[in-house]
Amino acid sequence: MANACTFCGGTIVDGVCEDCGKPAKAATLITANMGGMEHVASVQQAAQQQDTLTTNRTGKSTRFTVHYPTRGTGTNATKTTRRRADVSTHTSTRRNALGGGLISLPDLPSLDPLTLLMATPEVPAHKRHCGKCDVQVNRSKGFCPNCGTPYDFEPHLKQGDVVAGKYEVKGPIAFGGLGWIYLGFDTVLSRYVVLKGLLNANDEASAAAAVAERRYLAAVKHPKIVGIYDFVNEGAEGFIVMEYVGGQTVHSLRKQRGPLPVAEAIAYILGILPAFSYLHAQGLVYCDFKPDNVMIEGGDVKLIDMGAVRKIGDPNGDIYATVGFCAPEADNDPTAVSDLYTLGRALALLIMDFKYASTYEHALPSPDECVVLAENESLYRFLLRATHVDPDERFQSADEMAEQLFGVLREIVALQSGPRPADSKVFTGDGLIDATVDQLVSTPLPLDLPSLRVNLEDRAATEVIRILSLMDPVQQEREFRALVAQYRERAVEPKLRLAELLIRNDRLAGDARASDILSTLDSLDAADPFDWRPSWFRAIWFLTSNEASKALPLFERCYFEMPGELAPRLGMGIAAEMAGEVEQALPYYERVGRVDPSYVSAHAGAARCHAKAGRLGDAIAALEQVPDTHALRSQAQMAIGELVLAHPALVDDPLLQRAEAAVNAALSNGGSAHQIAARLLSFAASHLKNLTWPASTPFLGGNFDENALRINAEGRFRHAARHASSREERCFLVSEANSIRPVTLF
Predict the structure, then answer these.
(1) At residue 566, what are phi and psi to the nearest 5 degrees?
(2) Of 31, 45, 506, 549, which one has the greatest count of Cβ atoms within 10 A?
(3) How far apart, in Å, do the first and last CA atoms of the chain sit?
(4) Are 36 and 293 in contact (CB under 8 A)?
(5) Rounded to whole angstroms, how far apart are CA atoms 3 and 456?
(6) C-alpha 663 chain-centroid distance
(7) pLDDT value at position 728?
(8) Which domains are assigned to the chain?
(9) Torsion of CA 107, 113, 115, 117, to 10 degrees
(10) Do 342 and 289 touch, CB atoms closer than 8 A?
(11) Model pTM?
């Protein structure tokens, strides 16, 4: 009889509730996993029962709302299939180390192989099923009472047996769907090995799967996939001799510790993705991935248990899958995309307790139901895309998935331990590299949003890069139009770059500019509704047209597709701010700035949002985050002074001190800094009764009394006048100097 979970009443399987994912309370678990088949010795034996309930996924939360992207450009839009390789996102060598070098993972003790041997090598009753009709049988050996097919669940090898003249059997260590797994010792090479045998010679499906496994694995060679050493026979039974991996499975780690820290869980999935990239490139699909199949050893992870591997598109052979992990379509035609679905499901199970095999079989809890999702919006969006019920909405390659998951990990680590800037393979960096003080504190600059990097796999990539290097926008427009005519539908980049050029240069295309931009983007959407890049430029166009409410869902679509990128969040922040939703914009600005402080657009946006909400101290703090080495550091310091001057009712002594320090540091920048310093001195002189200042501490280089403040301000105004850009500005500054000058007898 199955044991009930003490938390939710669900069924305990292998020591873990299959509904909520929490470990069973009662027993001490000793776990051994070899070749992917895990043996659990416990006081209570768990029954295996999988419910099949499907609920609708929800994307709503009190903290944020996730909208799924819509496809097509009109009412006549038709269903299409996502194209592959829309954007080049090859994996990077920076992730060779587990966790991409961003985190340190706990050391796991190595296991003595002999401790993995089963004390009583017996298949549990609930796992004994007829290989032909699937009826449960009671004995370990005999004939099926339903169809008469013979079966045998007893191990055929015992301790001391020697297979193929050199593999000494130590004993069974695990049992799985294709048979017994034995620990062996290679007496020639003096190393432990694993022998994986066939469950039942009369079971045609198991026999076929074993043969298929041999055929596929002979050519599989990858450092993150368990090695295959040999194929041998002992009597009528065949064995695959595999590498012994003496670590611990991620599944057993999850059982021991409960939900893992998010960064650690991501590191394990990120570490195994190169193995899937390799398999898919070989035309193979893994099919039945779950945390049981990842072994942690020597500071790295390795994919084990290749029993369910099959060729992509192969119409023959059984399909092995696990409820709660497998994609909805995998029962009929498992693909690389359905493999990636299992990785997303495995990651979800590693970080949270939820009824993954029943209530949420093909769904995720909402952020309202799970704190870890509420605290990590990018991770939630990543999981939503990875486990989408529609294969076309998921990540389309392991490399693409890895690139975005690395970005999510980078954000999580940055929020915990400090900034983690890195170049994006999809977007350029922050476009705000030159701005006036007024531009920083007054309004967003949508044209300074990052651009898209040229997709080098595009047919016209070389020509596009050449045209982008031209200095004359008129010539660029002419050549891009020629390139569009040349390639028509065979290349995307020429149309994308033409639309971007027209958006960023309002003097081009004349009166027809708007229709030209939109028609170009419409043609791209019609050609491929799954390509999100036209949405990026369409959103920027709406921002420049003061239609921020239309831009926001387009940026959100980009965020859905690229959850590990900073640029979509910056776009969402700007769109929300321009739509008047400053509290909605603020978290996007702050996340971007904390991950990569070089995004001055994010710091300036956060400062504006805080200031509009009356939080002057937080606004100053946002601008203080601009790095010392950034070209806009001085402008950010002067912007702090501008914020204080713009909100006199909010200024107190500490805020004035921070403004004085910032402006004082910027004085070496020239005339504009002296003008702000003069205005700050004038402010201090006029509010002297309400302010205190340490007597021995200079205020912008002078004493803190009314006469000294006025004289200092006069000098600053006159200094600024000498650097004025026009006669009118010079006259104004001289007039200000005369006005603030204290009354004297000379």
Answers:
(1) -85, -30
(2) 31
(3) 104
(4) yes
(5) 56
(6) 39
(7) 94
(8) 113-243 (3.30.200.20), 248-417 (1.10.510.10)
(9) 140
(10) yes
(11) 0.84
CA distances in angstroms from 9 to 3, 179, 361, 664, listed in the order given: 9, 31, 17, 65
Tell which residue, 640, 654, 638, has the closest CA to residue 610: 640
What tokens were used for 638?
Answer: 């002067």
User: How many other CB atoms are found less than 10 A from the CB of residue 86?
Assistant: 19
- From 14, 19, 288, 292, the catalytic residue: 288
Q: How far is the C-alpha of 284 from the C-alpha of 225, rounded, in Å?
A: 13
pLDDT of residue 464: 97
745 alpha-carbon distance from chain centroid: 70
Pairing state between β 150-152 and 162-163: unpaired
State how far the Cα of 672 lies from the Cα of 657, in Å rounded to an integer.
Answer: 20
pLDDT at 401: 98
Residue whose entry in the numeric block shows the structure tokens 């290349």: 491
Active site residue 331: no
Mean pLDDT (10-residue bins), the chain, 746 residues: 54 55 40 32 28 34 59 47 53 63 83 89 87 88 91 90 95 82 96 79 55 66 91 78 90 95 97 97 94 91 87 82 92 93 98 94 95 96 97 97 97 95 95 91 93 96 97 94 95 96 80 85 94 97 95 97 98 98 97 97 98 97 96 95 95 95 88 90 92 87 92 94 92 94 71
How many other C-beta atoms are found inside a 10 Å radius of the C-beta of residue 1?
6
For 621-637, the DSSP string reads: HHHHTS-TTSTTHHHHH
Could you say which DSSP state residue 58 is in? -
Length of the chain, please? Answer: 746
The enclosing H or E element of 281 equals helix 262-281
- Are 494 and 483 spatial neighbours (Cβ–Cβ below 8 Å)? yes
Compute the distance between CA of residue 602 and CA of residue 591 in angstroms, rounded to an integer: 8
608's CB contacts (< 8 A; 6+ apart) are 441, 442, 443, 444, 577, 582, 619
Q: Look at residue 680 in the predicted model and tell me its pLDDT.
A: 96
How high is the pLDDT of residue 239?
84
